[in-house]
Design a protein that fits this description.
The complex is a heterotrimer.
Chain A: E1 6-17, E2 21-33, E3 38-42, H1 49-56, E4 65-74, E5 77-78, H2 84-90, E6 95-98, H3 102-105, H4 112-126, H5 133-146, H6 152-156, H7 165-179, E7 183-187, H8 195-212, E8 215-220, H9 223-229, E9 232-237, E10 240-246, H10 247-252, H11 257-265, E11 316-318, E12 321-323
Parallel strand pairs in A: 3-8, 3-9, 6-7, 7-8
Antiparallel strand pairs in A: 1-2, 1-4, 4-5, 9-10, 10-12, 11-12
Helix pairs in contact in A: 4-5, 4-7, 5-7, 7-8
Chain B: E1 7-19, H1 26-31, E2 35-47, E3 51-55, H2 62-70, E4 77-82, E5 85-86, E6 100-103, H3 117-122, H4 132-145, H5 162-174, E7 180-184, H6 192-209, E8 213-217, H7 220-226, E9 229-234, E10 237-243, H8 244-249, H9 254-261, E11 310-311, E12 315-317
Helix pairs in contact in B: 4-5
Chain C: H1 2-6, H2 9-37, H3 79-115, H4 117-132, H5 135-146, H6 150-177, H7 180-187, H8 192-228, H9 240-248, H10 255-286
Helix pairs in contact in C: 2-3, 2-10, 3-4, 3-6, 3-8, 4-6, 5-6, 6-8, 8-9, 8-10, 9-10
Chain lengths: ~325, ~325, ~290
């Protein structure tokens, strides 16, 4: 097995707020991603998934986010301790990020082709490739074609605000093709898109992975989206990984009560077939204030036991994946 | 479509246009199109106590149609009839108030952030000259029906959570016992786990009070769960309309088929089927059928003339394949 | 809320300065009113170290000292007492001008923003027209036409002041209009006026309050300039701006005559600015 391209070890991140004190946004997260693999990080608001993504690319606001503990190893670079210049070299051709709102990631004052050319020149400089301007332009247009943008010549000369959300998101993917990153982190890339456009983007990502062996970390709140293209899944709640393992295993046989609850919440039956098995209660930010006091899901869990309210379960091995639940083991976290 | 039940809402060939205002692109000026047609001749019927879901993607006109039904905008042609009387614009002085209510998409934006929850929920009753005690009773009752405790009534909207806000918005919609409630993407901006609770709540309320719902969504799963009947919209037109199970089990219109196929399904664990081409735009309506450019079954006549609506056993379909 | 304001030194300082200024002005105004009602002028300077009108040529142009905190003017009158005696006028003008601006600008801006269309166009062009002229020149022209008096000065200043508030309120209105709670209110059958009153005013007030607080300082300065130019209260009544003007003749020899009143004006303006900033942070935090 090749060495993993990304390795996160026991990562804990705190947000410091003037009015609300410490918020343990991410607690003791460990995961591995190999070349060509797609990992889905699934969670709702407050799960810490976006914080995790930003932390890996070291894009957190250092004024109020603290890397409390743990390591992030990306292709040999320690993303927590590395210097700013070293991190900047990683971003773009090492780690490329795509966000939910494509209008925010693209430069509104530059034409699409110029932004792609910029990406290409970044990559060629870093990898010491010599590239002619016409060759670079050819690559830019080719990348637009690869992401199925019609009228390629026309679109290349446009500005981002002249294109639709779906087109912009595909331009971002085209930029990813130009930069040829080792890891693509996509944070809710299809949430703002229509269903039909989303299907196109998901297929595109899978295609890019298959042809270039790029690794992808897909952050989403939708288990079905994650299940459609991810090889591995990590389900997060309250800043901690609750279940992690191969997609097929987890979706066919979910073990963690939260994963079970999420699956049952998806309304894929008629109301005549009965009520939805909703997860009771709602997420309260207070579980992020007290670390390691109790299982963060205990207040909403249908299978809760006494021990769940007294300490946090460790990750137990169960049927080929890891589950953080006292119903599958007895060890306490930390 | 049942004939025994009473029709609650009738939408008859409704058309709504918007002027494009200050024309910024030379192209538009040359084409002499100064307006776009957001809703182009839509007809529907909703029976009392039932739920009709308007399913479609962005730009299909479903939100515009929702606003027309509720009276926030007036149609340029056609009629909207609620229980036998035409729906008047909200600013019309003679209009009957409180019979139509709307649950908006983003609960954060549809509640005045600094207003107390009690005042938010009481707003629809302000014009009904109720005694103070009766008003209070109805507000507390509405809050209880949506699962919120009386103690929340004194807090301000910015101090409560997103899920609670959505419940408050629903409480505000039901407090005046409306004849019809239009829900515009009521669960799109909340977590999946809360969405299930809200959907359950909506069903409970409907069974308890007999409300009639017009639910607007882009989510086929929500449609599957909530709808008695589904109407699918594309670029301002109704392309398929009929009973839920029939349409979902065997969709007839090529767009419906593509739309349903594009939804990622948990059990499948593979990327959903994707349609080729860009979604259509209302500023660039082609001649003939609007879906022809993306349709895998396109025929020459599709590009010539806009197909009429054909009646099949299971649904009304706007497609030449069913002539 | 006060506690949060007080937690930061600058805003605390601002709060103290502004509150002290207005509280003193209210007190002094009451005394002066009583004095005129009872025809007993000395009530007006009961609390002051000296009678602000008492001339004492032997004590003219004395530098600041323990007995005369700000020195004396050319007629031997204690400057500190004259400043204190004059403060109600400046306080009243600043408050009236800002309130007038809010009321007029508020109504016009809210209506324009709510109804849009040509009401908005007309309002915006009028505002542009007013804003195109330098405020001071316009105020001078208006007052010169009307005549010299504090009332006319206030009117002139309000006429110049309301356009910026109209802009602020219109901007707030546009933001609020896009919020769906306006649609919800319409659905509940509320008339437009009730909607504006119920929702728009409260939401706009948060922005406006901090802006208006800072503006108190601006109004004070502009009025001081008007009175410096001789368009305020007539002598022998003291007035901050005119004190600065009178003192120019003796500058730089008797520097305290011009400079110290100017410092006091500056201090109040800065205090208002600090307080306004603090209020803005406070509301931002709350939101």
């Amino acid at each position: 097995m090749a060495t993993p391209i990304l390795r996160v070890d026991g990562l804990s991140i705190d947000y410091v707020s003037r009015f609300s004190g410490f918020i343990h946004a991410v607690s003791n997260v460990s995961l591995e991603l190999n070349e060509g693999e797609v990992l889905g990080v699934v969670g709702e608001s407050g799960s810490g998934k976006s914080t995790l993504a930003l932390a890996i690319a070291r894009l957190l606001d250092e004024r109020n986010a603290v890397y409390k503990q743990g390591k992030i190893d990306f292709a040999g670079v320690d993303m927590v301790l590395a210097s700013e210049p070293a991190v900047r070299r990683v971003r773009g051709t090492g780690i490329f990020m795509v966000f939910q709102d494509p209008f925010m990631s693209l430069n509104p004052l530059m034409q699409v082709k110029d932004q792609l050319l910029e990406a290409i020149s970044e990559r060629s400089k870093l990898r010491n490739e010599s590239l002619h301007k016409s060759e670079a332009l050819g690559q830019a247009v080719e990348s637009l074609r690869a992401v199925r943008i019609g009228d390629t010549e026309d679109v290349a000369r446009r500005y981002p605000h002249e294109l639709s959300g779906g087109q912009n998101q595909r331009v971002m993917l085209a930029m990813a093709l130009c930069e040829k990153p080792k890891l693509l982190i996509a944070d809710e890339p299809t949430t703002a898109l229509d269903v039909t456009t989303q299907a196109q983007v998901l297929n595109l990502i899978k295609e890019i992975v298959d042809t270039t062996n790029m690794s992808v970390m897909l952050i989403t709140h939708d288990l079905a989206i994650a299940g459609s293209i991810c090889d591995k899944l990590a389900v997060m709640y309250g800043g901690m990984i609750q279940e992690i393992g191969s997609t097929k295993l987890i979706l066919r046989d979910p073990k963690h009560p939260y994963t079970l609850g999420l699956i049952k919440s998806i309304p894929n039956k008629s109301k005549r077939d009965g009520r939805l098995d909703a997860i009771s209660g709602s997420f309260s930010e207070s579980v992020l204030r007290e670390q390691y006091q109790e299982c963060s899901f205990s207040s909403r869990c249908p299978f809760v036991r006494d021990v769940c309210r007294k300490s946090v379960p460790a990750l137990f091995n169960s049927d080929g994946r890891l589950v953080r639940c006292f119903n599958y083991g007895e060890e306490h976290e930390n | 479509m049942k004939t025994e039940s009473q029709p609650c809402l009738e939408i008859q060939s409704v058309v709504k246009r918007f002027s494009l205002g200050r024309v910024s692109s030379l192209k538009l000026l040359r084409s002499r199109k100064r307006f776009l047609t957001a809703v182009d001749g839509v007809s529907l019927v909703i029976d009392k106590g039932e739920t009709l879901v308007l399913l479609g993607e962005s730009g299909c006109g479903k939100t515009t149609l929702g606003r027309l039904v509720v009276g926030l905008d007036a149609p340029d042609a056609g009629n909207i009839i609620l229980n036998g009387t035409k729906v008047a614009h909200v600013r019309d002085k003679g209009a009957k108030r409180g019979r139509l209510q709307m649950v908006f998409q983003n609960p954060g934006a549809s509640l005045d952030p600094f207003m107390k929850i009690f005042d938010c929920v009481a707003e629809p009753l302000l014009k009904s000259n109720l005694a103070k005690t009766e008003l209070k009773r109805r507000v507390i009752e509405a809050l209880a029906l949506v699962g919120l405790d009386e103690s929340l009534a004194g807090r301000r909207a910015i101090d409560i959570s997103g899920g609670q806000k959505q419940r408050v918005v629903i409480a505000r919609a039901i407090v005046s016992n409306p004849d019809l409630i239009v829900l515009d993407e009521p669960t799109s901006s909340i977590d999946v786990s809360i969405q299930a609770q809200i959907l359950n709540l909506l069903i409970d309320l409907q069974q308890l009070k007999g409300f009639t719902y017009l639910l607007i969504t882009h989510d086929a799963n929500v449609a599957r769960y909530m709808a008695d009947e589904i109407a699918i919209m594309y670029l301002g037109q109704l392309v398929e309309y009929g009973a839920t199970e029939k349409i979902l089990k065997s969709p007839k219109h090529p767009y419906t088929q593509a739309l349903l196929a594009a939804v990622p399904k948990l059990e499948e664990m593979k990327p959903p089927a994707a349609v080729v081409g860009e979604p259509g735009s209302l500023t660039n309506i082609p001649k003939g059928c609007r879906y022809a450019v993306r349709c895998p079954f396109v025929m020459p006549k599709c590009r010539e003339k806009d197909p009429p609506t054909f009646k099949t056993d299971e649904a009304l379909v706007k497609c030449y394949l069913y002539e | 809320m006060l506690r949060r304001l007080g937690s930061k030194i600058p805003s605390l300082l601002g709060l103290v300065i502004v509150v002290a200024f207005y509280l003193w002005s209210i007190l002094e105004a009451c005394l002066q009113l009583t004095a005129s009602l009872l025809h007993q002028a000395s009530i007006g300077w009961m609390l002051l170290p000296y009678n602000p009108f008492r001339e004492s040529l032997g004590e003219s142009l004395l530098p600041p000292s323990v007995s005369h905190l700000m020195g004396t003017d050319d007629l031997g009158r204690d400057l500190f007492s004259r400043m204190l005696y004059a403060s109600p006028a400046d306080a009243a003008v600043s408050v009236l001008v800002v309130l007038g601006g809010i009321c007029i600008g508020g109504i016009i801006g809210l209506v324009a923003g709510y109804f849009g269309g040509w009401t908005e166009e007309v309002n915006m062009r009028t505002t542009d027209l007013f804003l195109a002229f330098p405020a001071l020149i316009l105020a001078l022209v208006i007052e010169a036409t009307l005549g010299r008096s504090v009332i006319y000065a206030i009117i002139a200043l309000i006429a110049v002041w309301w356009p910026s508030y109209s802009r602020v309120f219109r901007g707030e209105m546009l933001t609020i209009k896009s919020m769906k709670f306006i649609d919800a209110a319409l659905l509940s059958g509320l008339a437009d006026i009730s909607i504006i009153a119920r929702h728009a005013i409260r939401s706009s007030l948060n922005t406006v309050i901090s802006y208006a607080t800072i503006d108190l300082g601006n109004a004070l300065v502009v009025y001081s300039i008007l009175s410096f130019l001789g368009l305020g209260v007539a002598p022998p009544y003291p007035e901050w701006g005119s004190l600065v003007a009178l003192g120019l003749e003796y500058f730089p020899y008797a520097w305290w005559y011009s400079i110290l009143p100017g410092c006091v004006i500056t201090m109040i303006v800065v205090g208002a600015a600090l307080l306004g900033d603090g209020l803005r942070d406070l509301f931002a935090g709350e939101l």
